[in-house]
Design goal:
The complex is a heterodimer of chains A (150) and B (192).
Chain A (H helix, E strand, L loop, with lengths): L1 H21 L8 E9 L7 E9 L5 E7 L3 E12 L2 E6 L3 E3 L4 E4 L4 E8 L8 E8 L4 E9 L5
Chain B lengths: L1 H14 L9 E2 L10 E4 L4 E3 L7 E7 L6 H14 L3 H4 L2 E7 L7 H9 L5 E5 L2 H11 L3 E3 L10 E4 L2 E4 L5 E5 L5 H13 L2
Parallel strand pairs in B: 4-5, 5-6
Antiparallel strand pairs in B: 1-10, 2-3, 2-6, 4-9, 7-8, 9-10
Helix pairs in contact in B: 2-6
Classes of the chains: A mainly beta (150), B alpha+beta (192).
Bound molecules: copper (II) ion (CU).
GO molecular function (chain B): metal ion binding
Family (chain B): Belongs to the SCO1/2 family.
Keywords (chain B): Copper, Disulfide bond, Metal-binding
């Protein structure tokens, strides 16, 4: 009984892992994006996009931007804390060396998604195109979540 | 081992005499009592005295901020969730905007509603907000708007705790573990 449950859990977990990995399938399979979430609140306020990026290739990849049909504009941003002050600024690009991981995570790098083109709620999915320096694009499906769940 | 315990107990007992035994950062000596004339999320004129009787946690932010502000408020909501119900009933969180041009009462009400019943949005005249931030020596600054007219506001990231009489007691920084915030809020609520 217990081992049955465990097996079921393993299958589910395995399935979820495959889903997560294939969320960012394309781009020569060299760039893998997992755990993609858009943190949104009710209303018109901008959202924040978080994800893990893994460069499985043998050349550096450079993320230079993003866009989404669901938002008027998407920017690469970084939050920082300087002497107790919360700062936020746009970043031009993020370079990920071969074999490296890079986290877009709360209070650090994030996508800033501004101007909702349609109503979105927790549980919805949003497609975002990540744009790389060599004109490559990667379509990633983000889950809409509440910041309270992060 | 026993010696270490005795020293710990002795220092706890000594610390009990002054307002410096917080695990977070003490503010009583450096910050005046809570004092403001602003507008609440229902559009009503409010003063700091209206919030007396409960422990008040104050955070300065703006709703256009997608990352630091919601994450900080979410973390604070998570902190409150670790308290007993009767303790939580004695706490209110004021989200005071430093961006009243965009943050109308309606906007801050919808925004704070996502974090829990304890959270209330506060806005008001820019001059009144400045009077409050100057008194508390809290800083914020607007960045140049982009083509869309959007602008970023850099702002103090701490959460300030006031007791039931509105006296400043401690502040919680990002770097303080949640367990420390939980312990200090618990103590502040139960001391009175
Ligand atoms: Cu941002």
């Amino acid at each position: 009984m217990v081992s049955n449950l465990l097996n079921t859990f393993r299958r589910l977990a395995g399935g979820m892992l495959v889903m997560l990995l294939t969320a960012g399938y394309a781009y020569g399979q060299d760039v893998q994006v997992t755990d993609a979430r858009v943190s949104l609140l009710p209303g018109e306020q901008p959202g924040a996009g978080y994800f893990q990026l893994y460069n499985a290739g043998d050349e550096a990849v450079v993320l230079v931007g993003a866009e989404s049909d669901a938002f008027e504009s998407v920017e690469l941003h970084v939050s920082s804390n300087q002497d107790g002050m919360a700062h936020m600024q746009a970043v031009e690009q993020v370079e990920i060396a071969p074999g490296e991981r890079f986290a877009f995570a709360p209070k650090g790098h994030h996508l800033m998604l501004i101007g909702r083109e349609k109503a979105l709620k927790v549980g919805d999915e949003v497609d975002v195109q990540l744009e790389f320096a060599d004109d490559q694009r990667l379509s990633v499906t983000f889950d809409v979540v509440s910041p309270v769940s992060l | 081992m026993y010696k270490g315990l005795l020293v710990t107990l002795a220092s706890l007992w000594l610390a009990g005499c002054v307002d410096t035994n917080w695990r977070t950062a003490e503010t009583h000596e450096i910050m005046p009592p809570l004092d403001f004339s602003l507008v609440d999320e229902d559009g009503q004129a409010v003063e700091a005295e209206d919030y007396a009787g409960k422990v008040t946690l104050v955070y300065f932010g703006y709703t256009f901020c997608p990352d630091v502000c919601p994450i900080t408020l979410a973390r604070l909501a998570g902190t409150l969730n670790r308290l007993d119900d009767d303790v939580r009933d004695a706490i209110q969180v004021l989200f005071i905007t430093v961006d009243p041009a965009r943050d109308t009462p309606e906007v801050v009400k919808r925004y704070t509603g996502a974090f829990g019943d304890e959270f209330t949005g506060i806005t008001g005249e820019r001059a009144e907000i400045d009077a409050l931030t100057n008194r508390m020596r809290v800083t914020y600054e607007y960045e140049t708007p982009n083509k869309r007219g959007d602008y970023i506001v850099n702002h103090t990231s701490a959460v300030f705790a006031f007791d039931r009489e509105g006296e400043a007691r401690f502040l919680i920084r990002d770097s303080h573990p949640i367990t420390d915030a939980v312990a200090d809020i618990n103590q502040l609520v139960t001391e009175s």
